[in-house]
Write a structure and sequence with these properties.
Helicase, Ruva Protein, domain 3; seven-stranded mixed sheet; two-stranded antiparallel sheet; elongated
């Protein structure tokens, strides 16, 4: 069979192929070292520039998910030892816990058009994903890593930071990709901490956070008005905007609102 020398990047898949080995190796090495062979899933390997460095790590048991049939063929031809470890399909449609009964790492040069959805999938599987290293649009990566009081700080920052130690590792210029994206990129590392629960139902916490940020220019008194009790004197932080609160303060806020509902 004739080998494909390259894969045509497809706009519909949000493909921008990384073409810099130094950056690819840095991403592969940023995943924490494991004492046991850690199952690892690469999202959107494309032509395998990151894959080859992940395969070099003896502590990783690498699989990949790839939606592009042309890339699947290319990878099978150029990395024959990896051929049977490629899942042809959409990451967002995978039942991760059935594929990986044990904890697994997540890594990739993520398609920017689904990167936020990937982060929500990490959040949903937080007890199962001890670490993630990924390339994002720079603004998205900065947002996840930023703290309160920063204009980049937002819903995903607050929802992910209770569970993960998050580091913005480095930025990547447009010319390191083929075709070059119209935005700069950033690499993010998230490593799971020991926290197992927040002391409040997570769906309620998430609702308070999302409602608070949906009108982020307003104070929380106005943004959360539909959720507040008649007596708001027992509810803290209402004179502040959502972006001023740490995730710990959001927990305190959510607990206070929920407690006021049960006592009224």
């Amino acid at each position: 069979m004739m080998q494909h020398d390259s894969v045509r990047a497809k706009k519909s898949f949000g493909q921008h192929f990384l073409n810099d080995d130094t950056i690819a190796e840095a991403i592969a090495e940023a995943l924490p070292k494991s004492d046991t062979k850690m199952d690892t899933l690469e999202i959107g390997p494309g032509m395998g520039v990151l894959t080859k460095f992940l395969l070099n790590r003896s502590d990783l048991n690498l699989s990949a998910v790839e939606l592009d049939k042309e890339s699947v063929v290319y990878l099978g031809q150029h990395y024959p030892e990896f051929k049977n470890k490629i899942i042809e399909g959409d990451f967002l449609q995978l039942n991760l816990k059935s594929i990986f009964p044990q904890p697994f790492y997540l890594v990739g040069n993520f398609p920017y058009n689904i990167s936020t959805q990937i982060l929500f999938a990490v959040l949903e599987n937080k007890h199962h994903i001890p670490a993630m290293v990924g390339m994002f649009q720079k603004e998205v990566a900065q947002r996840i890593a930023s703290g309160p009081g920063n204009k980049d700080y937002g819903i995903l920052s607050v929802l992910l930071q209770p569970w993960y130690e998050i580091e913005y590792l480095f930025s990547v210029d447009e010319n390191k990709f083929n075709p070059p994206p119209k935005v700069k990129s950033g690499v993010l590392r998230m490593v799971r901490n020991d926290r197992q629960e927040l002391g409040i139902e997570e769906s309620y916490f998430k609702m308070i956070v999302k409602t608070g940020f949906n009108q982020r220019r307003k104070t929380l008194r106005n943004a959360l008005r539909p959720l507040l009790p008649e007596d708001i004197s027992v509810i803290p932080f209402l004179n502040l905007r959502a972006e001023a609160l740490s995730w710990e303060q959001f927990v305190i806020l959510a607990k206070a609102i929920q407690a006021s509902k049960t006592t009224n």
